[in-house]
Design a protein that fits this description.
The complex is a heterodimer. Chain A is an alpha/beta fold. Chain A has one domain: Rossmann fold. Chain A has ten helices and seven strands. A seven-stranded mixed β-sheet of chain A has the order 3-2-1-4-5-7-6. In chain A, helix 5 links the parallel strand 2 and strand 3. In chain A, helix 1 crosses helix 2 and helix 2 packs antiparallel against helix 9. The radius of gyration of chain A is 18 Å and the shape is globular. Chain A starts with 17 loop residues before the first helix and ends with a strand. In chain B, the strands form four sheets. An eight-stranded mixed beta barrel of chain B has the order 13-14-16-17-18-19-20-21, surrounded by four helices. In chain B, helix 12 crosses helix 13 and helix 15 packs across helix 16. Chain B is α/β, with parallel strands linked by helices. Chain B has 25 helices and 21 strands. Classes of the chains: A alpha/beta, B alpha/beta. The interface between A and B is large, with 41 and 32 residues.
Chain lengths: 272, 724
């Protein structure tokens, strides 16, 4: 039976959380032993996992700066997780102090932590909502108070869509979210894929298995499937590419990247 | 590790000068630790970030007096730049150990000895490692505390929300208007709400002390327990049924029951949740409404609706069974109702209903009231051929006993039409129509009898339908014609006029008399144009006769007016128009109106007749003596002629004549004459009759004795005969 919206999910910190595992990969200590144990297990199969996370952070930083350069100062970051460093509001507000950032996550611990971190910042909020129910996000009063949805917004879906299974129809959810955004809005996506990982599919599959075991399955999608998330959008140059190849800061920066950084795809689309 | 020949620093630095060497040190450092950092800075940015730290290390190396302590700040700064991996520390120490003195050893104002440099470099590493470790430890503890606090906050938020949810659920459970119960899969009741306890008549103990699979009732639908077993086996998520239960006091509780399977978090069946809505009252109401909708309020017999349901069921049977239907209409019930009043009529119907009920007690038999004084009795089964006759005989038999009503004994008789046959051939409507037609045949055969339906009789009725639809076209095609029957002066035997009688020359059925189509025309309204045509045609004919026989005195023409024509607003205008156009004087026209059409006539209805009478048109009261006319009313009517019904003259056909009939006719004539009304008699068939009527004072006569209705030239020859 579908859980009613007002019935909360229990908090069980004995179960690994993907946002706390992400924090661990990035060298943070906002995590518990269960998270570290699962993360270490995944790293046994894919030692380069931290590099993938780092590439995600770096891409996100470039994408946010790009958005600001395009005059966009409103950000909606879904699946924001545990705030560590170089968060969207830090990057955006460094580029433009007026920038407004709404974070969304469905992990109650991540939400509580974000709330503590954002205390005193009146241009950033955190809302508890689930990407699988886009209306929860669109109709969230905290978000609609902060962001003017009649003006362009940068919608960030960084390292989150690969946690939505096909049965929950992530493409429809993204389309529903974008429907409410003004023309000129940007959609920023990174997504895991077997394409680009410097390992065999069997080896990488071990890491995928770890996520399956912790009931947060990681859904690896093909480039084609990922490209479909941008339907109705015009791709910003250079299109859908591996993370380091998306608008690198320096001409030769790509040459020095860790091979794992090229796993999966990143792209930015502009709503027509 | 290769050392870059050219630093990536700003162009204003002197090649291989102190600043350039410092930058080269920072580049080496950055390359060493960048792979193990988690920073989102680019390599170039990171290198720029390390440059002030490198400068700090160089300064400490050359400081006088030497103090290694500030190097701990460099360790702190590394942690602040998210270099939290222990590898960054060992790599940093390695880089300082190998390259700090090499690249920065000669940067100071005074050169250091090699030995001194090494010692200082080692001290710097110790301090940096201490600062790094301290900072990492603090950061780790702070983050651990932060995340633990967040987890606690989230958990307490969740608990509060859960508490609120539980409170809401508790309220829903407790105050719900429907009964709610939870049981385990063995049927043990774990929890019930107050509503459910009340529905079962109190005593929660009673409700809980029985396993729910013991809550059986004889009226349980067969699938209830099948669904139940499927649900507890986990093969069904829920079911919804209408289910009766025994209350604590033994009475029946009817419910709409919805049962859902509750599973645990692993998806295993765990509990069953039952929602019960008390439908006992609604069910009773439905039963009563159903009863009222299917039964006649007066007699309590099944009504038309229920009868049709049963008949349709009987007719749709495909097991070779038959049906027999008796369609009963009481004879003369209307007269009883009119004379004794509706209340008495109703009591009579109730009595008849009771008696009929007693005739149809066998299985497969039923009696229903269709409305008014029409009843039906139905029998089904294999032997209806004999049964239906017996049923009809029983019905006529029970009706034979007089009914006592208001101190009087009334004899009730009825006419029955019987239809019998195999199921599956005809529709209910067809069967009922056939029975209706047959009943009328029994009625017109004198009543108090039954008749069996036959195809030919049905066909005649069906012809009637065909005639009705053919009427309008017949008028357009000129299929109607008029015959005239002479009216004779009883005094001198001369032809006084003629009555116009309309006929239909039907292309298939031949010549049809007015009794076959006038009621149909009356029913459809076609009587108005048809009547107008008859008036025009006969007035034109009368004028023609007068032209030809101006010496034969005024020749009158009688034309019948139907009740519908009487009500037609243009009656007077059209009559005047016809007379004017033909040139016939109004006094030569007599319009015949039946007595029954004028019963209870008010002034509005009489007004057109008065206008016509004032113009000189005679009005005759046709079929006089058949209705229940109020004689006192006669003087009020604009009538100048009474046409005595043929039933009075029938009694005079035998010899000697019936003395009562003679007296009646004598009385009527005397009454009519005293009111200044002329008397015309119809149906005169013998000379003796004619003589007798003349002696009784009747003025005019018509009948076969003089002439049958015929073509207009027949009248012409009769007139000629008179003139001779």
């Amino acid at each position: 039976m579908e859980r009613p919206a007002w019935a909360p999910r229990g908090i069980d910190i004995s179960v690994p959380s993907v946002s706390r595992m992400y924090d661990f990969y990035l060298g943070g200590s906002h995590n518990f032993e269960v998270d570290r144990e699962a993360a270490r297990k995944a790293m046994e199969f894919m030692p380069g996992l931290p590099k993938i996370m780092q590439a995600n952070r770096a891409f996100m930083r470039r994408a946010v700066r790009y958005a600001v350069s395009q005059g966009i100062t409103q950000f909606l970051d879904i699946g924001s997780g545990i705030p560590t460093f170089g968060n969207v509001h830090e990057v955006a507000q460094a580029a433009d102090p007026e920038a407004r950032v709404a974070y969304v996550d469905h992990d109650p611990v991540a939400v509580a932590h974000s709330r503590a971190v954002l205390e005193g910042n009146d241009r950033a909020v955190i809302a508890a909502a689930d990407l699988r129910r886009p209306q929860e996000i669109v109709k969230n009063p905290a978000i609609s108070e902060l962001l003017d949805l009649d003006r362009p917004v940068a919608l960030l879906l960084v390292a989150v869509l690969h946690f939505i299974e096909d049965s929950d129809d992530p493409h429809a959810a993204v389309a529903e979210l974008c429907e409410g955004l003004a023309p000129g809005s940007l959609i920023v996506i990174t997504h895991a894929s077997y394409e680009g990982i410097p390992l065999t599919q069997e080896e990488a599959g071990g890491a995928v298995g770890v996520y399956k075991d912790i009931r947060n399955p990681l859904v690896m999608r093909s480039r084609e499937e990922i490209a479909r998330f941008f339907e109705g959008h015009e791709m910003v140059e250079p299109g859908l590419v591996s993370m380091p190849n998306w608008r690198p800061d320096a001409p030769h920066a790509v040459e020095h990247e860790d091979p794992f950084a090229f796993s999966g795809f990143a792209g930015v689309g502009r709503k027509a | 590790m290769s050392i870059p020949a050219q630093s990536s620093g700003a162009p204003d630095t002197e090649p291989d000068g102190p600043e350039d060497r410092l930058r080269r040190f920072a580049t080496i450092w950055s390359r060493a630790i960048f792979p193990s950092t988690a920073t989102s800075m680019t390599r170039t940015e990171f290198e720029q970030h390390l440059l002030p730290l490198a400068r700090g290390l160089s300064d400490i190396l050359h400081a006088r007096p030497f103090d290694a302590a500030p190097a701990s700040e460099v360790g702190v700064a590394l942690v602040a730049a998210h270099c939290t991996d222990p590898d960054t520390l060992s790599s940093t120490l390695g880089v300082i150990d190998s390259y700090l003195v090499l690249y920065c050893g000669s940067n100071g104002a005074t050169a250091l000895s090699t030995e001194d440099s090494r010692a200082r470099c080692a001290r710097i590493q110790h301090a940096l490692a201490g600062g790094f470790t301290q900072a990492l430890r603090e950061r780790t503890l702070a983050e651990q505390e932060a995340i633990a606090r967040s987890a606690l906050t989230a958990r307490s938020d969740a608990e509060q929300a859960l508490h609120a949810t539980e409170a809401r659920f508790r309220a829903v459970f407790k105050d719900a208007a429907i009964g709610i119960g939870i049981a385990d899969l063995d049927g043990n009741v774990l929890e019930v709400n107050d509503t459910l306890t009340r529905m079962f008549g109190g005593l929660e103990h009673h409700v809980r002390s029985h396993k729910i699979n013991e809550w059986v009732h004889p009226e349980d639908s067969p699938q209830v327990w099948k669904y139940y077993n499927e649900l507890v086996r986990g093969e069904r998520e829920h079911y919804r049924v209408e289910k009766p239960y025994y209350r604590n006091d033994g009475t029946v509780l009817w419910t709409n029951l919805t049962v859902s399977l509750l599973r645990d978090s692993e998806g295993r069946p765990e509990y069953q949740l039952a929602l019960l809505e008390d439908t006992t009252e609604r069910r009773l109401l439905n039963l009563r409404l159903r009863y009222e909708a299917t039964h006649d309020a007066l007699t309590g017999l099944p009504n038309r609706t229920l009868f049709f349901e049963r008949l349709e069921k009987a007719l749709s049977a495909d097991d070779g069974s038959r049906f027999g239907l008796c369609y009963l209409d009481l004879d003369g019930f209307k007269a009883i109702n009119d004379s004794l009043g509706h209340a008495s009529g109703d009591r009579l119907l109730v009595e008849v209903a009771d008696r009929l009920q007693s005739c149809a007690t066998a299985p497969g038999e039923m009696v229903a009231r269709l409305g008014g004084d029409e009843f039906v009795a139905l029998t089904t089964g294999p032997d209806t051929r004999t049964e239906v006759d017996e049923l009809a005989c029983r019905i006529l038999g029970v009706l034979g006993t007089p009914v006592r009503l208001e101190g009087r004994e009334l004899t009730v008789r009825g006419s029955i039409g019987i239809v019998e046959g195999p199921a599956g051939e005809r529709s209910a409507a067809e069967v009922l129509r056939s029975a209706d037609i047959t009943m009328y045949r029994a009625k017109s055969a004198g009543g108090n009898r039954f008749e069996l339906a036959d195809a030919e009789a049905d066909a005649r009725a069906i012809t009637r339908h065909g005639l009705t639809t053919a009427l309008p076209a017949a008028l357009e095609r000129g299929e109607f014609f008029i015959e005239y029957q002479p009216l004779v002066h009883l005094g001198d035997g001369t032809v006084h006029g003629a009555e116009a009688l309309v006929r239909w020359c039907h292309p298939q059925h031949g010549v049809l008399g007015p009794d076959r189509f006038i009621p149909l025309a009356e029913h459809t309204g076609l009587i108005v144009p048809l009547g107008r045509w008859v008036l025009e045609e006969s007035v034109r004919q009368a004028h023609f006769w007068q032209e030809r026989h101006s010496d034969g005195g005024p020749l009158r023409i009688n034309v019948n007016l139907s009740p519908t024509q009487l009500h037609h607003p243009l009656l007077v205008a059209e009559t005047v128009d016809v007379l004017e156009r033909s040139g016939l004087e109004p006094g030569a026209l007599c319009l015949e109106v039946t007595e029954s059409a004028l019963i209870g006539a008010d002034d509005d209805l009489l007004k057109p007749l008065r206008q016509l009478a004032e113009m000189g048109v005679d009005i005759a009261l046709d079929d006089f003596g058949t209705g229940y006319s109020n004689l006192a009313n006669l003087r009020r009517l604009p009538v100048s002629v009474l046409k005595l019904d043929r039933s009075f003259t029938q009694g005079m056909q035998q010899h000697p004549a019936d003395p009562v009939d003679l007296k009646i006719v004598e009385g009527i004539v005397s009454l009519a004459h005293s009111l200044d009304l002329a008397v015309t008699v119809e149906g005169v068939e013998t000379g003796a009759q004619a003589e007798q009527l003349r002696e009784l004072g009747c003025d005019t006569a018509q009948g076969w004795y003089y002439a049958r209705p015929g073509a207009p030239d027949r009248i012409h020859s009769l007139l000629l005969a008179d003139a001779v």
